Every structure is written in C-alpha cells, then in structure tokens.
Amino acid sequence: MLEFDSRVRQFSQGVQTSVNRHALVMSDYIIENFKHPRNGRDQWSFLDHEFQIAIADEKEADMAILKCAQVGLSELSIRISLAFCAMNDYRKIAYVLPTAKFSSEFASTRFGPAIESSEYIKSVLSKEVDNTGAKRVGTCFLIMRGTSGTTAAISVDLDCIITDEIDHCNQDVLGSFASRLQHSDLKLTKDFSTPTVPKYGISALYADSTQGHYMVRHSKCGQLVAPSFFRDVIIPGFDGGIAEYRKGDERFPGVFDAYVKCPSCGGPIDYSDFADPAGREWAHKHSISASGVTKKGFQVCPWDVPKYNPLVDVLTSIKRYKLHGDWVNFRCGTPYADSENSFLPLQKEGIGWSIASLRADTLGPRRVFIGADLGKQSWVVIGVPTVTGKLDIVCAEKIEVKDLENVNLGEFLVEVFRDLLGVRIIADAAPNYETAMYIHGFLNEGQAFGAYYGGSKANTLDIYTFNESSGIVTIDRTPSFDATAKAANSGQITFRDSPGFKVMAEHLDNLKKIKVMGAETFRWVNSGPDHYGHALNYCYTAFASVEERYIRGGLSAGVSVGAIKLKGENRNEH
User: Fold this and answer.
1) CA-to-CA distance for 438 and 448, rounded, in angstroms?
2) Rounded to two decimals, what is the model's pTM?
3) Domain 61-211+287-300 maps to which CATH number in 1.10.150.290, 2.60.40.10, 3.40.50.11440, 3.40.50.300?
4) For 111-120, how does the pLDDT look when each residue is reduced to its tens digit (9 = 90+)?
C-alpha cells in the first residue's frame, strides 16, 4: 500500500503530470478516499462484500451484472462514478436510472452523502455545476439522467455509461444514450440490474457475456463450485423442490433447515464457507476474446453476501412479495417466466396451410379472421373459429412486397380476405396507414380496421374501441396482449404447423411482460423481433370483437357489429 499511498498523495497535491490516474486500482482508491456509507468515522471497506472488488477494478471491459437485491452494488456504483471523475481528466460519465424522478431523488439521497464522505471529491466539486442533473468533479462531468423522456440523451457526449436497474429503463432511450459514446476512445458501459424475465435486459446481456460466477470452495469436498438457487437450494421434506415453493410455504418446518447443496458432491455447503473470502473467487465461463463476447459478466447471488442474506431469511421473505415473480427476481436474483408474463412454448395441433392453399378453398364454407403486421415484409396470421369457441390459427406466413405480382399489398390482402369469406381483418395503421386505409376502403363497413395502440379512455377499462366509419380500432396495448397471451396459454388459441409457425413461436417468445418501476402497472416489451406477436394480437382482437355473436348467430361476411368495447380484467396485475 505504500506505493499506492504515495500516488494518492501526489494526486491530492495536484501533481497530475507525474501520475497516471487512469492506471490506479479503483478498489484501493475507493478505500482510500471514501468513508463507510453507514459509519462516517470509518473508511470504506469491502468487508462482507468482497465480491465487489473485481467489479470495481474492471476498467477495460464493458460489464453486465445480474444481481439480487440488497447486495450493495448501488453504493459501489456511485463510488465508481465519482472515482472515475477523480481519476481522469476531461471525461464525461452518465449515471442512468429508470425515471427522471428516481434519478433526481437518487442524486440527492445517495450521491450527496457519498460526496460528503470524500474530502478530496468535495474539494474539487464545482459549486457552479452541482445539481441533481449534473456535477463537475475536477475537469470531468457526471451527468444523472432518467429514461422516462425521449430527450434524456440529446446533446450529451459521453465516455462511460453506468445504468442502474436496466430492466426497468426505457430501452429505446438507452439506445440513444449508447449512441452518445461514438466519439469516445473509451466507450465503456456498465449495466446492472435485478432481472425480470428471461432473454430481456440484464438477463440477455449476461447471457452474451463472459458469465462470471463467484465460486465457493466447499470445505467438505474441496471443490470450487457455483451453486444455482433453483437447482441447489434444498428444503428437507418439501415436495416438488424449490421450484414449487410459494407464499404460505414459509411456515413449512423444513424451511428452517434449508441448505445449499454442493453441485459437485451433493452434500450441504455450510454457510461459513460462503462467508470465507479465502475460499471465494470469480470464474468466468467465457473469455472476452471468445466470438461474440464483448462484456464481462458477473452474477451476484444471495449467498455472495451471506452475512446479510441468511438462507432462511431469503426463503421466509417470500411472504412480503405480492407477486411470486418479484420474489424470484429481487431476492433470488433469477429471471422468471410463467403464463402471466410470457407466451408459453407453442404446441402444434395438426397441419396448417399456406395462404395460397387457403385461397384454393381448403377450408370450405368456414369464415376467417386475419391479423397483419405490415411493412416491406408483412406478417399475416389467419384464424378460424372452432365449434367449441376457440380460435384455430391455421396459417402464419411472411409476405414479401417485392414478390407480389401485379398487385400492391393492399390489393393482395383484399383479394385474400374475399377469397376466404373473411369476417374481419385488422392491420397496423402506424407508422404508415395507407395500406390499412386501402383495405378499409375496398371492404364492407365493419370488416376492415387499421389498428393503433393507445391507452384506455378515462374512466373506462375498454381494451378495444372500434370506429366503423373511419375504419380505426384503438387497442389498449398491455391488456390486449394480456388477453391474447391468456388465450394462447390456456388453449383458447390453437396453432397449426403452417409456413411461419416456427418463426411465430420465436417472435412470441420474444414478448415479455415486465413491471414498471415505481408503479403498480405492467407493460409488454420485446427482446427481439415480435412481428408475428402483433399480427396474432390483431387477429385475436378481430376474433374477440365478434366472437360471441359469431358463435351464437353464424355471422355472414358483410355483418356490421357496431362499436365494440371489451372489458379488461385485473389490468394492474397479471
């Protein structure tokens, strides 16, 4: 430490030309320059949080940190942000949070005390630039932003971005922030979050990273192992294992004897093993040089901070969570998907058709409903009601505009609709509405609608609102996907093995429902292409808007059903 102390003294005295501050070890700098967050008399310490040292010292690679809650990473990331400014010249770093309100409160309640705990940071903090949105530390700028507004990243050039709770941020705005790194020679990103659903946000970033685990040496067998919560946590006598553990089960006697099983020998790992820093070390599944791996990944589990996360406490804390998924995400640090927030894997029920074979009257006299996500590539889903009231998806097919012969896309869909004696077709009307309006203009009133996503009207729970004269249906996005996912997962929508079935299954798997931070509301997001998801949603909207009358009365193709308003259920929950 003597050499380091000397460098710090030089730095503090302003002898900048003789010190390469960017080469300093950040964990040492944090210890030397910050007080303990809960005890202003003592210096910062990594005691009981030793896993953080490797994260603090990673300065060359981008990072993705998948974590459980309450492991001290926000406190660490604040110090990393401030230390980055102190250890560099003429750099800009952004600390990004889900909302502007959250960012403002965080700046006051978390950054403020951290600055107060560092004599050096206080000494170089500009009085002219010191607010909840920006701070100047020496010659560097620290910018704090939320992602709730689309202008958050405008006119901000950056060298490093730290994103806190990335899963709950606006992903489009995050993309704008990433573009602000373009002219930096560093271009560093450090993303961390409790996970939400698989393949989204931090889960997706970690999956494409080096996938580091904080290994523990099992004192009984001597092996370095990385236990997994849902594979290796054992509750003696509890049927079904931890995967079946739910609220109310915390009173089960075996919970108080729960243990972590060693993946190597199968014996119980004593919690003292987790608490021994001499037996812990980070190990990574992949290297940065591996093909496609650009981020250093770290997964932080409850037992990586064993003093503050006894296993019994983790298990019994389930009673405090309204939603099971929240407990899995926050306390276990694991992504979670079920029928409430995802489309379950699709099951094929028979052979489907192509659009061409359907137009050859394969279906006979039965009527169809069509949903289409339009563009240069259009994604078309065709469904047929069954005698039991289900919607049978008999065709899913991608249409290339360049492949259409002698007709435009609107003409083609009108011909398909008429050939199949369609009941209703819904196609997206945004951002280009010409094709949807063309279809509306050539079919009978009530048959064709262009779709816009929007919120519900005030004082109503309506999911869909149809305007026949304009040919527009306004769809409340979240509850409409709730309804479609519920129908698909419960078997009320069935699927045939048609040309686009495999891709449709992938698109639906990319749609996930996440909770909006700070609000008891949810939104559906995508982790990849989701065109067939929207086409299916439009098809089910068409079907649901006339389903009862169709089943009861056998509607003809030219029927007009008026302004249909369907009610949503449990809109603020699953």
Assistant:
1) 9
2) 0.86
3) 3.40.50.300
4) 999 999 999 9
